[in-house]
Amino acid sequence: MFIDEKHAIKQERAIMLLLFAVAMIVRLWFLPTYRVISADGIGYLSVARELMNGSVSFWSANHPPIYPALIAFTGLFVPDMELAGRLVSIFMGSLLAIPLYLLGRDLFSREVGIIAALVAAVWPPLRSWSCEVMSQATYLTLLLAGFYLFLLMVRLKRPLFGFLSGIFMGLAYLTRPEVLMVYAAMLLFGIVRLCFEAKERNRQAIVALLSGLAGFLLLLVPYLIILKAITGSWQLTGKSGAALADALSRYLGHPDLKRELGFRSFGYLDVLKNYPDFIIHNASYNLAKAWQIFAPKWLWGMAFVGFVWAGTSRESLWERLFLCSLFAPLLLLISFFFVGPEYLQFYLPPFFLWGAHGLIMALSYVVALLGREPQQAPYQMTSVSYAALSLTAVFILFSLVSQMPKNSNKPYHYSDDGARYDQKRLGLLLKEQLPSGSKIMSRSGRIIFYSGLPGVDMPQASLNEILVTACKERVRFLIVEGQLIAIRPQLGELFAPLFSGEAKEFYRNKGTGPELLPGVSLYLVFKDPSSVGVAVYEICQNANLPVR
C-alpha cells in the first residue's frame, strides 16, 4: 500500500508538471507575436521601476503591488522591463494549470482536471492575456490556489489550510481587488455549511475559518492603511472611480470623461443618484455582450450538462455552490463597469470544470448504453478516459491552428490592430527625432512609453485649456496623432498637416517652424499610408506662463 501511494504521488507530480509545461510551451510559442505593450501595462512597469529605484511612490492606489513587485524581481535578471512583465504573466498563467487540475481532480475526477487544465492552456483569452503586461494571469492563479486551499480547509477542518488559503486570497487582493467579493462569498459558504455540520466538528471548522480570515487580514489591513495614506480616505481600492468613469463615458457618449480638467473620482452611490437609469442600460449592454464573447455555445451546453449531472448528494450540491462563489464579482461588473475578454476570463475555470465533467458524463452514458465499460479501479484509465482525452487533443490542435497568425507577410496597416503597433512606431520615431529629455504631451500613453521621454497626459478640454495645461507642466512638444480627430476634435487646425498634402511625408524643421497658432510652431510631421500619422508642435519655448 505504501509503494502504491508513493507511486500515486509521483504520478500526480508528473501530471502537474506536464500540464504546466504544455501551458508554458504554448505561451512561449506565441510570445513573438506580441509586439506592443497594453495600455495598463505601462502603469505596472512604471510602478515596478519605482520599486527598483527604492521610491516610496511604488505604492500606487491604481496598481496594487504584487504584479509590479514580480516584474521588478524579474527585471533584476531581464533588462527589458516590457519583456520582464510578459515573462511574469507567462509563468503565472502557466501555473494556473496546477490549481485548476487539483480542483477538477478533487471535485470530479482526474480526467476532468486534466481536460480543464489543457483547455485553459490553449483558450484564446487566457493564453493571450498570459502574454501581456497585465495582472490577469497572476491574479487568476493566486485566486484558484486560494480557492483550492479553502476547499481543503472545508473538507479537512485544518487551520493550516485555512491560513494558507487566506494568504493566497490576500495576495490575490494585492493583485486585483475584486477578490474581496469572491472571498466574502467563500466565507459565507463556509459559515452556512458550518451550520449543517455535526456539532462535534464545529469547533475545528470555526478555528479553520478564523485562521483563514486571519491570514487574509494580515495582508489586507496594512494595504488599507497605505491606501488611506495615499488617498486621504478609507477605501478598498483606488481604481474603481476611474473604471466607473470609463463606463459612464460610454453611457453618456462623452469620451475621456476621466481626463477632463478638474475630474473628481466618484462612487457607486454618486452614479445611482445622478444617473438613475445607468444600471439598466449598462447591465443590458453588458449582458448582451457577455453572451456573445464569454464562451462559445457548445461550452455553455457542456457546462450545463456537467453542472446538472454533478450528482444529487448533499456534498455535490455544496460543491456546486462553492464553485459558484467564483462568480461573485460578476454582478458588480455587469451593473457598473464594462465587460471584455480581459475581465470575463476570471469566470472561465468553473465552465471548464463543468464542461469537462459534462463531456465525461455524456461519454459514460454512451458507453453504458453499449454495455462495454468495465468497473473502473482508482486512477485507472478507461475507454471513456481515452475518448475524452482524445477529443480534448483534437480540440487543442484545432484551437492552436486557428490562433496562428494569418498572412504574416502582409504589410502592416494601422487598421489591423486599432493603431496599437503604429503608436509604438510613432513613439520610437519621437525617441529618434526629438531632443533627449524633452517633455511631451500626448493622449497616448503608449507613444510616451516608447518615446522614452517624460510625458504628460493630454486632458479632455478646449484647445486653449490644453495649451495652458501644457505650459503649466513645462511641456515642450504637443503630440497630435491622426487618431485623435475622433476624441479631440477641438484641436482643429492642428490636424491640418496630417490631412493635406502628400499621403507620404516626413518633415522636421531646421530652425523655427511655421506657427499655426501664436506660440505653437510645427516641429515635425510624419505621414504614411500605413500610419495614422503624427504632427509635433513646439510650444512655450520662451515662456513660463500660458501662451494664450
Largest β sheet strand count, sense and barrel closure:
7 strands, mixed
Runs in which pLDDT lies below 50 for 5 or more consecutive residues are 542-548
Number of H/I helices: 23
Strand content: 5-15%
Mean pLDDT: 90
Q: How big is the Rg?
A: 27 Å
Give your account of this protein's structure.
- Helices cover 60% and strands 6% of the residues.
- It is mostly helical.
- Among the domains are: 1-134, no CATH class; 135-234, no CATH class; 415-539, no CATH class.
- Strands 1, 2, 3, 4, 5, 6 and 7 form a 7-stranded mixed beta sheet that branches.
- Strand 6 (520-527) and strand 7 (534-539) form a beta hairpin.
- The radius of gyration is 27 Å and the shape is globular.
- It starts with a helix and ends in a 9-residue tail after the last strand.
Question: Summary?
Answer:
The chain has helices spanning 2-30, 39-52, 66-75, 81-95, 97-107, 110-122, 124-129, 136-156, 159-173, 179-196, 199-231, 240-252, 268-274, 278-293, 297-308, 314-324, 330-336, 341-344, 348-370, 383-403, 420-433, 445-451, 463-472, and strands spanning 440-442, 455-457, 477-481, 505-508, 515-517, 520-527, 534-539. It is mainly α. The model is unreliable at 542-548 (pLDDT under 50).
How are the SSEs placed, and which strands pair?
Elements: H1 2-30, H2 39-52, H3 66-75, H4 81-95, H5 97-107, H6 110-122, H7 124-129, H8 136-156, H9 159-173, H10 179-196, H11 199-231, H12 240-252, H13 268-274, H14 278-293, H15 297-308, H16 314-324, H17 330-336, H18 341-344, H19 348-370, H20 383-403, H21 420-433, E1 440-442, H22 445-451, E2 455-457, H23 463-472, E3 477-481, E4 505-508, E5 515-517, E6 520-527, E7 534-539
Parallel strand pairs: 1-2, 1-3
Antiparallel strand pairs: 3-7, 4-6, 5-6, 6-7
Helix pairs in contact: 1-4, 1-6, 2-3, 3-4, 4-8, 5-6, 5-8, 6-19, 6-20, 8-9, 9-11, 10-11, 15-19, 19-20, 21-22
